[in-house]
Amino acid sequence: MIRSILIANRGEIALRIIRACRDLGIRSVAVYSNADVDSLHVKMADEAVCIGGPTPADSYLNGSNIITAACLTRCDAIHPGVGFLSENSRFAKATENSGLIFIGPDSETIALMGDKIEAKRIAKAIGVPTTIGSEGPLADMQTALSYAEAVGYPVILKAAAGGGGRGMRIIENRSQMPEMFAAATKEALSYFADGNLLLEKFIGNARHVEVQLLADSFGNVIHLGERDCSVQHHHQKLIEESPCAALDEKTKVRMTDAAIEIFKHIGYRGAGTVEFLLYNDEFYFMEVNTRLQVEHPVSEMVCGIDIVQQQIHIADKEALPFSQEEVTLTGHALECRINALSPGKIENYIPCGGPWVRIDSHIYSHYSIGCHYDHLLAKIIVHTSHRNHSIRVMKRALQELVIEGIVTNRDQQLQVLDTMQFKTGQFSTNLFDQVMSVQKSQTRKKAYA
Amino acid sequence: MIRSILIANRGEIALRIIRACRDLGIRSVAVYSNADVDSLHVKMADEAVCIGGPTPADSYLNGSNIITAACLTRCDAIHPGVGFLSENSRFAKATENSGLIFIGPDSETIALMGDKIEAKRIAKAIGVPTTIGSEGPLADMQTALSYAEAVGYPVILKAAAGGGGRGMRIIENRSQMPEMFAAATKEALSYFADGNLLLEKFIGNARHVEVQLLADSFGNVIHLGERDCSVQHHHQKLIEESPCAALDEKTKVRMTDAAIEIFKHIGYRGAGTVEFLLYNDEFYFMEVNTRLQVEHPVSEMVCGIDIVQQQIHIADKEALPFSQEEVTLTGHALECRINALSPGKIENYIPCGGPWVRIDSHIYSHYSIGCHYDHLLAKIIVHTSHRNHSIRVMKRALQELVIEGIVTNRDQQLQVLDTMQFKTGQFSTNLFDQVMSVQKSQTRKKAYA
Amino acid sequence: MDSLDLHTIIEEFEHSTLSELELQCASYTVKLKRANEPNLPPVVPPSQQPVANHRVTENSPDIIESPLVGTFYLTPSPDAPPFIEVGRTIATGDVLCIIEAMKMMNQLQAEFPCEIVKVLAKQGAMVEFGQPLFEVRRI
Amino acid sequence: MDSLDLHTIIEEFEHSTLSELELQCASYTVKLKRANEPNLPPVVPPSQQPVANHRVTENSPDIIESPLVGTFYLTPSPDAPPFIEVGRTIATGDVLCIIEAMKMMNQLQAEFPCEIVKVLAKQGAMVEFGQPLFEVRRI
Which residues contact A438 (CB under 8 A, 6 or more apart)? Predict the structure, then answer.
């Protein structure tokens, strides 16, 4: 039985997990780097252990210090949060080997789904549509060229070993291939120590839609609906919502069925996500995220289920307490990520509030945003009966939010919410860049006027 | 059509109404006293008008200045909020006479239900149980004595003209009557300029349960479930929840039916509440609140309906957009009021947050709490699937709340949540005083030890 | 002020009778203090004055503020001449203006004899509670 | 003003009759004060020291901090005598203690010759990253 959990993370996601622990009566142990002494997760947890210097490699990626801290503070389990070690199968394995419970899937599952070629092969094998392209790593540039001829331009090169936009290149025609292939190989090598590349047909005007799943140790797999995460900048999600405005009921059922099928096939255990590209009512498997996701609150609000609590219950070998039929998805939830666009000290923070608003945030007045970690300041989540209500409530919430002393992306988010594309639900992953380029050209016009 | 609203109130409830305006695309005009220059409602509204000095009589009760401000800022309507002028039928009438919409019931309805004797008479006439006692104001102390003999001690004296615990006295036996009668008369006279008293049989171990209703101009009346507001101190509510833990399904249906019956009978229009005493599955009509209530969020969370938006739609002569059958009450919502126990400056405020938590509050770091108005700092509302989850989430939220610089009732609230009575749902309106007296005697014991 | 350097500031201070000087500008804040000269009277910066319906600052004109919310009129009727004019002397009880509220014409009377220095509100405009209406000089 | 250095400020102060000077700008804050003795140079407070594994304060002992999270042992095995003792002199490379982590016994070696002044961690207890383990005096 899990009675205490070490949280191997920081920021708002560490608070999120501490809150789930409190709600379950579980003791929480925070870890922190020298740079995070004044962080809320350190203050809020029942205990806190300093595990290293500011650089992630020295602290939040320092598996040995984290596992030792968990053992010495008598924790039963480690929750890796998102990012950092959350998809590191070696860390999961080391955690298990130390006699601790890793709150996440088996280390084997993490390793299997971490191999994007293998993941895609499995999806294809059980009949889930995947984008056409190379079935495995490209031997050389010539192979890339012949695949590209076969599927037709544009194509996209991706690092076989990792995500986050690193090693990705979109190639419009044959002449761009040599340069792009070399650049992508180099980038993949430097970020993932693995230069292998995949090639896929590039679907330009697509949406990013993912299905949230819960699977227990007894073969029960259920979904909590889908999330649309198409508003992105450099493959970083900015706005997420559930349900997806572009998904008809039939496609939705096919997509959630496909996601459940994959999880059943690989014997997945825990919370996880299957990501798809959606284009004209056709969807294509992209990858499996074997962890909690930043945007999980969007699903929590529409289904009323605490995903982090369920992660803990599943890790504790409990069966899911509800069936698919007992899950009701109500209304529409929308999340905006508020990011810092510059480091600095928050001189004044007045959060938004009131009806239909949830805030997941670790900031406070006089908190300093350093340059060691990501720049997520707050997730504003709203939940109402309809998508257009949610958009209006989100605008109200963003407008009343006060964060002084640093620059944030609040105004950019408001601009996106105000576009006709977003309002009507007709947009794809390039919406954010479109909005920003329009703004830039307008600013330029003004400058010349 | 209502396109702009003047909000004749301050504090968190003014923010609540501004938020509803924003969500509906309605322009909001705040009013404020000299003492509230730095208040959030002044900053958040689209416009703000100073209407007088710090004393309520000079500003928030100054109907003439408020109505003039509404006219001159070209508002279509006035929302009175809670307290202040919200149940003042003369103000409602004056608003109507100025060609403005009063967001609330007809002034006649307010006047009718403001007369507690008449309200009780109506309830009784249509078959709703009322507490036994005098049917009208007591002529003199001798009449009080003979009524008390007839219904049996203990009895309670109440001011005929007002509520809020003013002019109330509980009388255990005959010998206490002369002194109590004189004191209650004096208090009623000084608070309501009306010394008339009522006498009722006192039900000691009862709960305070109220039904939230919405009624439009077309005769549609629906309820949004009930709220239990039994945790009180000096008749001031401290904790509210929905549904009520002590109400079986049969009694609940009878109670909501009775409430709807009363609203239909008097032709009520707007949002309103019928308050009952609940004792051993029997309930007794107490009064009708012809306004929004502080604890309305508890109902909003279980039904997913924005009560303030509905108030505005109803005032705008729109029909209710849903029937009783379309209202689904889900889960359990709990609200704790965080009050200041001392005036002073809030040096540091870090709100609670995360899943299942809503905060309605007007405070911020460095905001000063004066002594002119009530001491409500924040309403923490949680909504989960079950009552015991809600209690745990509320404890988590209260524990992480940081308000430095002034004394609050946060710890008292945590003590109440921790009692066996509250946890099991078996308590009555004297729970808070019991908890505090136990604490006092323990403190005394410690002092002697 | 941006070009002012420390040397100049100290120089200025030295040639003054001040015992303290605090200076704040875009680029820096500086505070100078001189001890030992007991002959100089300390300069006390005037603190905030309490806000009253008639704001008074020593040797400066009074401000007459609006006691209610309403529409400000300088004339008894659209065609009539104004109640007061700048430069005119007013006796206690003289009508200064009308503030219309709830269809009532509220005449605002002078509470002391004074000379009108300036009219601060606009004819026909809304005035808030406490809004400055006239600058006057007591006689 | 940004280029104004401490020397110039002090110079200006020295040549003035000031008793105090406070100055704040983008890069630093300085406060100069002169008591009744006008010969004393102003004291500039040292700014915050960077935190290092070996914290150094002038004229005070060094602190050796834990470089990892683990269990602190002063002895190589339960029955063996401790690696070091208070008062003893240690050479560079001498083992000070063992920190056990992930079933590995990590020997912590002295990086400079020193004398052990105090043992700050408890035998068999958990130590965090950066936790002070020994107070030593450099030789």
Answer: none
Chain D: which residues have CB within 8 Å of chain A?
51, 68-71, 101-102, 126, 128-131
| pLDDT score recorded for residue D138 | 92
Sites in chain A below the pLDDT cut of 70: 163-164, 443-449
DSSP per-residue letters across D30-97 = EEEE--S-TTPPPPPPP-PPPP-SEE--TTS-EEEE-SS-EEEESSSSTTSPPS--TT-EE-TT-EEE
What domains are there in chain B, each with its CATH number? Answer: 4-103 (3.40.50.20), 132-201 (3.30.1490.20), 207-439 (3.30.470.20)
Q: Domains along chain D?
A: 3-33 (no CATH), 46-138 (2.40.50.100)
ipTM of the complex, rounded to two decimals: 0.80
Q: For chain D, what percent of residues have pLDDT higher than 90? A: 51
CB of C19 closer than 8 Å to CB of C34: yes
Give the whole-angstrom CA distance, residue A199 versus residue B360. Answer: 51
Does the annotation mark B291 as catalytic? Answer: yes
Chain C neighbors of D30, CB-CB under 8 A: none
Residues of B in contact with A15 (CB under 8 A): 353-354
pLDDT band of residue C1 (cuts 50, 70, 90) is: very low
Q: Which residues, listed in sequence order, are joined to residue C65 by a DSSP beta bridge?
A: C132
Do A and C touch, counting CB pairs below 8 Å (3 needed)?
A: no
What CA–CA distances, in Å, run from A104 to A303, D9, D75?
21, 61, 38
Residues D14-43: what's their mean pLDDT?
A: 59
* Helix, strand or coil, per DSSP, at residue A337: strand
Say if residue B29's pLDDT is above 90.
Answer: yes
D12 at C interface, C-beta within 8 A: yes
Using a pLDDT cut of 90, give the percent of chain B over it.
Answer: 85
User: How many other C-beta atoms can be found within 10 angstroms of the C-beta atom of residue A447?
Assistant: 7
Cβ atoms < 10 Å from Cβ of A142? 11
Predicted local confidence at residue B247, as pLDDT? 95
C41 in Cβ contact with C17 (< 8 Å): no
Determine whether the interchain pair B365/A348 forms a contact, defined as Cβ–Cβ distance below 8 Å. Answer: yes
pTM: 0.86
Inter-residue contact B259 to B304 (CB < 8 Å)? no
Please check whether residue A45 touches D, CB under 8 A.
Answer: no
Q: Which residues of B touch A304 (CB under 8 A)?
A: 330-331, 384-385
Q: What is the pLDDT of residue D84?
A: 94
User: Does residue D43 register a pLDDT over 60?
Assistant: no
Written as six digits, the tokens of B361 are 């509050």
Long-range (24+ apart) CB contacts under 8 A made by B392-398 are B392/A22, B392/A23, B392/A24, B392/A25, B393/A23, B393/B355, B393/B356, B393/B357, B394/B334, B394/B336, B395/A22, B396/A19, B396/A22, B396/A23, B396/B352, B397/B352, B397/B354, B397/B357, B398/B336, B398/B338, B398/B352
Does pLDDT of C3 surpass 50? no
Chain C residues in contact with D14 (beta carbon < 8 A): none
- Interchain contact, A67 vs D68, CB within 8 Å: no
Size of interface A-D (CB pairs under 8 A): 44
- Strands B77-79 and B101-102, bridge-based pairing: parallel
Percent of chain C with pLDDT over 70: 60
CB C82 within 8 A of CB C110: no
Nearest to C130 among B34, B64, B73 (CB): B34
The per-residue DSSP string of A32-69 comes to: EEGGGTT-HHHHHSSEEEEEE-SSGGGTTT-HHHHHHH
Looking at residue B366, its pLDDT comes to: 94
Contact of chains B and D by CB distance (3 or more pairs under 8 angstroms): no
Per-residue pLDDT at C71: 96
pLDDT in tens, C104-130: 899 999 999 999 999 999 999 999 999
